[in-house]
Amino acid sequence: MSNGQNHSTGLAAGLSQMLEGARDSAKGSYVIRAVGVRKVYKMGESETHALRGVTLDVRRGEYMSIMGPSGSGKSTFFNMIGGLDKPTAGKVYIDQVDIAQLDPYELAWLRCRKVGYIFQMFNLIQVMSCLENVMLPMSFAGKDSEEARERALEILELVGLGDRALHKPAEMSGGQQQRVAIARALANTPDILLADEPTGNLDLKTGEEIIELFSHLRKTLGVTIITATHDLKMLKASDRIVWIEDGSLARISTPEEANIHLEEVH
Amino acid sequence: MEQNIGKQIKLPFRRALQISLRGIRIRFGRSLVTVSGVVLGIAFLMSNLTGQLIKQAIAKERAQRDTVNMMLSLVRAEVGSVTGKKIAVAVCGTLNDTDRLLLEEIAAAAPESLRGLGVEAPGVTPVPVERLGEGASLLLILGSGARSEIPLANLAAGMSQRVALDSVEGRVYAGNEEANVRREPFFGRESDEQIQKARQQARAERFRTIWIVVISLLVTVLGVANALLMSVTERFREIGTMKCLGALSAFIRTLFLIESSLIGLAGSLVGVVLGALLPLIAYSFAYRFGLVFGSMPYGTLFMAAAGAVVVGTLLAVLAAIYPARFASRMVPASALRSTV
User: Fold this and answer.
1) Distance in Å from the first CA to the final CA of chain B
2) Is the pLDDT higher at B178 or at B153?
3) What letter does residue B248 receive in the DSSP assignment?
4) Is the pLDDT of residue B1 over 50?
5) Max intra-chain CA distance, chain B
6) Would the pLDDT of B105 be above 50?
7) Edge-to-edge strand order for the sheet containing B138-142?
8) pTM of structure
9) Contact at 8 Å (CB) between B61 and B295?
10) Domain ranges within chain A, ordered by starting residue
11) Which residue has the higher pLDDT, A228 or B124?
């Protein structure tokens, strides 16, 4: 939608500047590396093997989608590469750091600055205004509130909600809420945007706007985007599609190849 | 390899307080329910304390009045009605409240004169020792001081009728002779057995009250804990989100502890006011308004109120320990769950 593009251009330049500093410190070509990742959940006596050894590299600046039926271990893998969960065996490196070695303080630091999370249900803090929602990760990062405020307004401008900064999430449409959530995810200039079914709760048109915004952010900010999604449009926009089935990596395909598979399913 | 990971800093308390306060304000309805639980518990505790203070104060006032009445009846037994008589009062040491009350009663009965030695009380005319006994039909010896300092004969010189009443030693000296006639003390002395029985009863009563109060406070703690647990499960997505955004477990814990202590403080303050006012009003209907409010030791009442507020706040924090731990251990991935 035109609205989605107008707002994005102006701020992008400023944001990419801000991001550069963060990116300089870690110049590896892979932003995430998963090596033989296994995850076993113990429920009393029985063991569930959610992941049976997944190896995958995510390139810096890539737009990657993860597909898989429910119960395939997709969510587990998704959590793992987002630093939300630790593998039972194998290694996950985020920006060349083995997350299994991190203590809770370092993990919190990583979640705060390296990864931006976007949720299907938006997960905005309902008691806070949009501005405060965007400022929250910055205050967790210890940023002084005046600076955080300015920056939060800038990012909100970038996602096209500069005039809605003081509204409460409940007063906004789903698409607007997801934009606020994206702004919040970008607050600490992360290297990775991790989005779990970001268009799952949006109508088609709004979903497209969000996909457009993602593509735009990736181009202008060079941020790596990983989504778990079933949205065809979302899959088409991505560079690679990773299929997880029964706890293993089934195949990696391009959107063109994926189309064939999807048409088979439907 | 360069170090590209840091440690997350702890947030200032002020920030947690801000977020907590906002949470309470927005979830005002729910908070109010939790608060009212604390209000009830603390009001019950406070009403028990206040009731006890009122009963004590009334009992003290009554005992005083009984003593005064007994002394008055003793006076009447010796000299008949005080009205139109000359009364002399000698004080050793200082007067206590009972003595003052007795003097007031006598002055109110309109004697011809009320002369006093070493007394400063309304209605009492101070006179030197030689003139104290002059034509008096009754000599009252009051005060807590030693009796040996004032020889009875000196004080009683010139009395028309020689009756002296000693408020402390409970003796009546009468007749024209110097002979001291020992009478029964003013206060009927109860037997040791009776006293012991009364004490036992009082102890059992106190124990029962403490038991009920403790139970009610436990119920309050469980109520608050339950409400907070509900609040945690209700907010698990919010908590998970905060963790995804970089919140430390300690921050989440602080958030809930602050919320609970604020709930406890607010509930205790309201509870204390209710718990103090209700018994005061109820007893005022049962007794006289002035008696209840006049005899109340307000300093002690205030101390009891402060204690109840501290107890209420501490209990609320105690109730929050488990829910706060529960919340802080929530994994950040719980934010991703789409079903609530």
Assistant:
1) 43
2) B153
3) -
4) no
5) 116
6) yes
7) B125-126, B113-117, B86-91, B138-142, B164-166, B171-173
8) 0.76
9) yes
10) 2-27+60-83+113-265
11) A228
A204 token code pair: 């088609």
Architecture per CATH, B69-173? 3-Layer(aba) Sandwich (3.40)
State the DSSP H helix or E strand holding residue B333, giving kind and residue range, or none if neither: none
Find the mean pLDDT for residues A198-220: 90
Q: Are B282 and B293 in contact (CB under 8 A)?
A: no
Q: Are A184 and A137 in contact (CB under 8 A)?
A: yes
- Nearest Cα residue in chain A from B329: A104
CATH number of A2-27+60-83+113-265: 3.40.50.300
Tell me the C-alpha distance between B324 and B311, whole Å: 20
User: Which residue in the set A108, A128, A188 is minimally distant from B248, CB to CB?
Assistant: A108
Query: Which residue from B109, B89, B233, B204 is spatially nearest to B156, judged by alpha carbons?
Result: B89
For residue A183, give both structure tokens: 């702004």
Token output for B100: 């003052």
**Smallest Cβ distance to A109: which of B7, B11, B249?**
B7
- Please state whether beta strands A97-98 and A89-94 pair in parallel, antiparallel, or not at all (unpaired): antiparallel
Q: Give a three-class secondary structure readout of B160-176.
A: CCCCEEECCCCEEECCC
The residue ranges of every structural domain in chain B are 13-61+191-335, 69-173
> Residue range A186-193: average pLDDT?
93
Q: B238: which chain A residues are within 8 Å (Cβ-Cβ)?
A: 123, 125-126
Can you say whether residue B93 is alpha, beta or left, with left for phi > 0 and alpha for psi between -120 and 50 degrees? left
Query: Cβ contacts (< 8 Å) between A85 and chain B: which residues?
Result: 331, 333
Helix A145-158, helix A174-185: angle, nearest 10:
130
What does the block give as tokens for B183? 């009478």
**Among candidates B5, B240, B245 on the partner chain, residue whose Cβ is nearest the Cβ of A137:** B245
Instruction: Select the highest-mean-pLDDT range: A69-73, B123-127, B199-203.
Output: B199-203
Residue tagged 């020889």 (tokens):
B151
Whether the complex's predicted ipTM surpasses the cut of 0.90: no
Of residues A209, A197, A207, A182, the one with CA closest to residue A68: A197
Judged by a CB distance cut-off of 8 A, whether residue B296 touches chain A is no
d(CA B310, CA B81): 55
Phi and psi dihedrals of B212, rounded to 5?
-65, -40
Which spans in chain B are helix H? Answer: 13-26, 28-79, 97-108, 129-132, 152-156, 192-234, 236-244, 249-286, 289-295, 298-328
* B105 CB-near residues (< 8 Å, 6+ apart): B68, B72
Specify the residue for token string 């190849």: A257
Nearest to A210 by CA among A260, A240, A173: A173
Residue B241 contacts A, CB cutoff 8 Å: yes
Cβ atoms of A127 and A79 within 8 Å: the answer is: no
Label residue A21 by pLDDT band (50, 70, 90).
very low
